[in-house]
Amino acid sequence: MNMKESRQSNLEINRTNDLESMFVRNGRLALDVGARDGHFSRILTGYSEKVVALDLNSPQILHEKIECVQGDITELKYKDSSFDFVLCTEVLEHIPCDQLKLACNELSRVTKDKLLIGVPYKQDIRVGRTSCLNCGKSNPPWGHVNSFDEFKLEKLFPHLTIDKISYVGSNKEATNFVSAFLLDIVGNPYGIYSQEEPCIFCGERLKQVNDRTLIQKIITKLSYRILAVQNLWTKTHANWVHVLFSKK
User: Fold this and answer.
1) Which residues are paired to 167 by β-bridges?
2) Per residue in 61-82, pLDDT tens?
3) What are phi and psi of 175, to 5 degrees?
4) Which domain holds residue 218?
5) What is the CATH number of the domain that holds 83?
6) How far is the C-alpha of 29 from the C-alpha of 104, rounded, in Å?
7) How many domains does the chain have?
8) pLDDT given at position 1
9) How far is CA 41 from CA 32, 60, 110, in A?
10) Using only C-alpha atoms, what is the Rg of the chain?
């Protein structure tokens, strides 16, 4: 499923609607960090006089109220309190762990009034793991190297106050050390190889191997048998958490 199709799914529509319900109206200048296809940047034009759409590669968005820029979340080229409203969704889960605090500090720094963060909620990043055929290392799904809950987000933004927390969707996706370890051994045959994100270690495109030995099939089946037992006690949790912060 490509990004355009994904945006039209019920889950994505619900996520978009929830985020938009927390947008600040009548802001002069907004920043969309990780703008990608411009989906949220375009929506923000209905709330702010001007929107800066920022990503690692300058987005290609044609709109008179949107300025597209290339930038790095860990080193934003803007003065303190430059933006009335800052949106950062589908980004922090991708930031390397040793740079996460720096990225959050930068978001806090350039925010003048409100900051809205959207991330997967309590994601078990061992679920859907893939194996890179080039370097042999295991990758988290969609390049998500961080997992979040509301408490971790609060600690990452100590100089801001929480205005509102919202949760969207639900799932029971979780695994355990043994099941994840066994799947790593057999090359994670059912990982999310349809993702656009490359290997986080070597940058090569992830490719799935369909041919497996009998031993690999047995180990895979054992892994899922153990997981099935665990699932009897696994609790449901939200897909995403959205947190609106204020700078006061």
Assistant:
1) 241
2) 999 999 999 999 999 999 999 9
3) -140, -160
4) 3-246
5) 3.40.50.150
6) 19
7) 1
8) 52
9) 6, 11, 17
10) 20
